[in-house]
Amino acid sequence: MFNKSLVLIIGLLFIIGVGCSQSIPSKPSDFSFEYNWSEGTIPPPYHYEYTIKVEKDGSGTLMYRPDYSENSKTPVWTEQLPQISEAEMDLLYSRIAETGLLKKGTIERENENVGGVSEWLEATMNGKKYEIKPGAEQTEKIKYLYERLHNIVPDFTWNKMEQQRQDYIKANYKSFREENP
Fold first, then answer.
1. Secondary structure (3-state) at 89
2. pLDDT exceeds 50 at position 166
3. Backbone angles phi, psi at 39, to 5 degrees
């Protein structure tokens, strides 16, 4: 009697658990993404931008611009990122799915985001483009996703970019050099 009750309880818990769990489809073989971050509209030399691009095989690149990208003289510093494991790619795909992007196709902007930091994501899955636009509502799931994407880049790479940026500022902005000898 005890074994039958235990089996019945376990069976019911399994059914309830399966019924309540949110189903996220498997990561497609062509899953890749590009995450962009841009400082707010502030005067040079304080503005900078970067892009993290990850290919379907988990190889990634950081492209860092120490100034406004509209300035044709702004260099683009490129760093190869450590290979992202298949498990991490699966996790990133799950995080993207949890934002609701797979159902919506595009998460539109909620506001004009004038003057503030801009973040946006473009992803490819099953041959289709998906996008979280700049100014989209920063839900907890989107904030967590963006934090996770930022953390793909190792600290030593961020430190290198910041040092190069400081060198760029000193070399290109006379007023900054005078204020910060």
1. helix
2. yes
3. -60, 160
- Residue 63's pLDDT is what? 98
User: pLDDT tens-digit profile of 96-126?
Assistant: 999 999 888 888 877 666 678 899 999 999 9
Order across the sheet with 32-38: list the strands. Answer: 77-81, 60-65, 49-54, 32-38, 118-125, 128-132, 106-107
Question: What length does the chain have?
Answer: 181
- Residue 173, classified by CB atoms within 10 Å of its CB into exposed (0-12), middle (13-18) or buried (19+), is middle
Closest residue by Cα to residue 40 from 98, 115, 112, 114: 115
| Cα 48 from chain centre | 16
Domain assignments of the chain as residue spans, ordered by start: 32-179
Whole-prediction pTM = 0.82
Measure the CA–CA gap between 68 and 44, rounded to whole angstroms.
8
Class of domain 32-179: alpha beta
Cα of first residue to Cα of last residue in the chain, in angstroms, is 83
